[in-house]
């Protein structure tokens, strides 16, 4: 229904973020209490509707049943990859030159593991550095259902290979999955022992800091990017602080639904514009794909807040039951103003990068 013909009472009970309407104000308050709407949600650049994920925003703009008014403008001024709106078709064309990426080709080995004691970034970046990790697995176990890490790769923000190696598994390999991994028995016979891989990768990531003291700001430890990193780290027998991990399989704006992940192949095609996993899979390709996705999400421009998370001390009582009467007297816009995000938005890493 056109907003010009909606009653004042209907507008008062309409969520200022997702535009959902409620019969009673206390229902809207409860909705705001559990929805965690914030400035960090993917938002339509035309009608300003907040969506829980990029997939929801895509459906809103170019799905089978899009919002007609938004779809009409988006078809002329919108980027199908990042879903942003631009002032003119010309500015859109300029943007697409950088948003549409091509398949990665290794730029060469800039460092071997023996040299990973170097703590300074060669490009002079301050604050925590970011690296991407990916592994390729072969099968172990009597039925071949057990994943064994057989190849590992680390890259930096500039897509340079920091380290790559075959990994000698501790258990017997029952299937090398050659059709997708390209790995043969002779590759693993000369592979690095997994304990050595663990030690060297952790030493590089922690960068001289004990794991239990790693800080999210002003520390030397590196931010770790990947897809399904919990699985890769488990197969490597490693642990790393959760607040230093950026996982494209768990980041809410990149999820298919609130609990279901998209594949890395789909995310790369949808948001970077090229295909991966079309033949034998290289962990370098996965590292580059996750790093590019991370950087795209980190570059999203959102209003800055002193306390952006709902768990931050000053925000914990924003929608407390004791404030029910006060909240019901607020306008939907006022409630949205005090609502905060329930996940860490990667755009906040820009603040970390700027910290001395």
TrEMBL record:
InterPro entries: REX4_DEDDh_dom, REXO1/3/4-like, Ribonucl_H, RNaseH-like_sf, RNaseH_sf, Znf_C2H2_type. It is found in: Nucleus. It comes from the Eukaryota. GO terms for biological process: rRNA processing. Keywords: Exonuclease, Hydrolase, Metal-binding, Nuclease, Nucleus, Zinc, Zinc-finger. Belongs to the REXO4 family. This is RNA exonuclease 4. It comes from Protea cynaroides. The lineage of its organism: Eukaryota, Viridiplantae, Streptophyta, Embryophyta, Tracheophyta.
């Amino acid at each position: 229904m056109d907003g010009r013909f909606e009653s004042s009472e209907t507008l008062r009970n309409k969520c200022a973020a997702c535009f959902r309407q409620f019969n009673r104000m206390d229902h809207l308050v409860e909705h705001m209490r559990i929805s965690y709407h914030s400035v960090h949600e993917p938002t339509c650049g035309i009608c300003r509707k907040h969506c829980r994920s990029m997939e929801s925003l895509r459906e809103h703009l170019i799905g089978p049943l899009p919002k007609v008014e938004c779809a009409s403008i988006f078809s002329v001024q919108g980027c199908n990859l990042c879903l942003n709106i631009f002032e003119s078709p010309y500015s859109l064309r300029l943007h697409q030159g950088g948003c549409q990426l091509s398949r990665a080709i290794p730029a060469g080995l800039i460092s071997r593991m023996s040299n990973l004691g170097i703590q300074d970034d060669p490009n002079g970046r301050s604050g925590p550095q970011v690296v991407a990790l990916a592994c390729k697995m072969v099968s172990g176990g009597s039925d071949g259902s057990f994943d064994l890490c057989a190849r590992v790769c680390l890259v930096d923000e500039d897509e340079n290979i920091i380290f790559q190696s075959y990994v000698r598994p501790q258990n017997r390999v029952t299937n090398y999955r050659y059709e997708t991994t390209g790995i043969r028995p002779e590759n693993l016979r000369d592979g690095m022992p997994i304990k050595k891989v663990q030690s060297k990768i952790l030493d590089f990531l922690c960068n001289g800091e004990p794991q239990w003291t790693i800080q999210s700001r002003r520390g030397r430890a590196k931010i770790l990017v990947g897809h399904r990193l919990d699985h890769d780290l488990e197969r490597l027998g490693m642990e790393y602080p959760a607040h230093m991990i950026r996982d494209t399989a768990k980041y809410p704006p990149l999820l298919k639904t609130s609990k279901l992940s998209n594949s890395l192949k789909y995310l790369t095609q949808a948001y970077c514009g090229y295909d991966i996993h079309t033949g034998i899979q290289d962990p370098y390709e996965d590292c580059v794909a996750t790093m590019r996705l991370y950087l795209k999400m980190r570059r999203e421009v959102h209003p800055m807040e002193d306390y952006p998370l709902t768990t931050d001390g000053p925000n914990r009582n924003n929608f407390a039951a004791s404030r029910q009467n006060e909240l019901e007297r607020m306008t939907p816009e006022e409630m949205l103003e005090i609502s905060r995000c329930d996940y860490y938005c990667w755009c906040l890493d820009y603040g970390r990068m700027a910290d001395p």
